[in-house]
Amino acid sequence: MTELSYPSPTPSLACAQSPARRRALLAGCTAHAIHDGLTDVIYVLLPVWQAQFAMSYAQVGLLRGAYSAMMAGFQLLAGRTAARWGRKRLLVGGTALAALAYLLVGCAGGLGVLLLALVLGGLGASTQHPLASSLISDAYEPGGGVKQALSQYNFAGDIGKTLVPGMVGLLLTVASWRASVLGVGVLGLAVAAGLWWLIPADIATARAKTAKGGAGSGSASGLRAMILTGTLDSAVRMGFLTFLPFLLQAKGAGTAGIGLALTLLFIGGAFGKLLCGYLGARIGMMKTVWLTESTTAALILLALVLPYLGLMAVLPLLGLALNGTSSVLYGAVPDLAGAGKRDHAFSLFYTGTIGGGALAPVLFGRLGDLTGIPFAVVALAALLLLTLPLAWWVQKGLDSAGGKYQ
């Protein structure tokens, strides 16, 4: 396995690059946190909107689905558009559009305006994953540490998922829902303004010069295998999260117990995203994926037979393994894509993972209706094992691309 041959920067050049690298990482992490927060705060607001606008459950699903569909469907367009208009402009503009959507939500007088606002919000959100990921990759590649930086980026998204919905939940106890979402919109606009200042304008230029020195050529087959691996991993994660409350309920858990269980799972998941990126850099992509996915499959099966307290005890570890794989896969994208194609590669990756996560609850929910939840959960664990040979194929792609996962 050969390492990528990057030109070694002089000490003075490395020092000069360091502030720009840190700003790029901070910008990417900030963008991930606010976008994931804006995306998941919808879960807090859906019951409020249902009562406010007298919506059916089908209409509630339409609202959430519209946001997710726009976010997933336009990521490829975001990657292509960035090549023409610039990554910085598009990422800042997308953040501002997502924020403005919440200002429109605060003024919505009916379902039509609410749906339009969420469509616009999903369109704005489609810019974040591919552009912020490639920004960090390009900033950190010359001096090394891409995988560790992407794991921090991944972790930041979970911080946003915790803080923004939590903040809105608290605001709803003292203010109206309209005032709360207007506050979220103002916060998003402030972050967009901060991103314009944070994102280093010279990262793309510096990366282009470095690429001439011999960046990896990429691997199309490895990239396809990695996208499929991520899609299956996301599908199993979303499918299991759908069934977990029902498993807990069958073991005697009440509403408070289910809430605590999900909190334990999400805490483990957040640290899994951070730690597994570093683990992948140390022992390699394939070994890490085999470790996390086989552990996840075993713990999913164990969840069927453990009593309530036993399941609660293993949920943090399950969350760590369940979410940790994603950080390792993100780190493989830059090498498999090759220089100059990262925006597009990250767009493909996130389209697959978000799409898989959206379809899995529907498909496995139907399977659960037909066969029962235990069989559906076993099927999820079996599906996850398909990622093991795929990870071997991804590793072959990394080797042929001339890259070393580090």
Automatic annotation (TrEMBL):
<keyword id="KW-0472">Membrane</keyword>
<feature type="transmembrane region" description="Helical">
    <location>
        <begin position="345"/>
        <end position="367"/>
    </location>
</feature>
<feature type="transmembrane region" description="Helical">
    <location>
        <begin position="225"/>
        <end position="248"/>
    </location>
</feature>
<feature type="transmembrane region" description="Helical">
    <location>
        <begin position="177"/>
        <end position="199"/>
    </location>
</feature>
<feature type="transmembrane region" description="Helical">
    <location>
        <begin position="373"/>
        <end position="394"/>
    </location>
</feature>
<dbReference type="InterPro" id="IPR020846">
    <property type="entry name" value="MFS_dom"/>
</dbReference>
<keyword id="KW-0812">Transmembrane</keyword>
<protein>
    <submittedName>
        <fullName>MFS transporter</fullName>
    </submittedName>
</protein>
<feature type="transmembrane region" description="Helical">
    <location>
        <begin position="90"/>
        <end position="123"/>
    </location>
</feature>
<keyword id="KW-1133">Transmembrane helix</keyword>
<dbReference type="Pfam" id="PF07690">
    <property type="entry name" value="MFS_1"/>
</dbReference>
<feature type="transmembrane region" description="Helical">
    <location>
        <begin position="254"/>
        <end position="276"/>
    </location>
</feature>
<feature type="domain" description="Major facilitator superfamily (MFS) profile">
    <location>
        <begin position="24"/>
        <end position="399"/>
    </location>
</feature>
<dbReference type="InterPro" id="IPR011701">
    <property type="entry name" value="MFS"/>
</dbReference>
<dbReference type="InterPro" id="IPR036259">
    <property type="entry name" value="MFS_trans_sf"/>
</dbReference>
<feature type="transmembrane region" description="Helical">
    <location>
        <begin position="57"/>
        <end position="78"/>
    </location>
</feature>
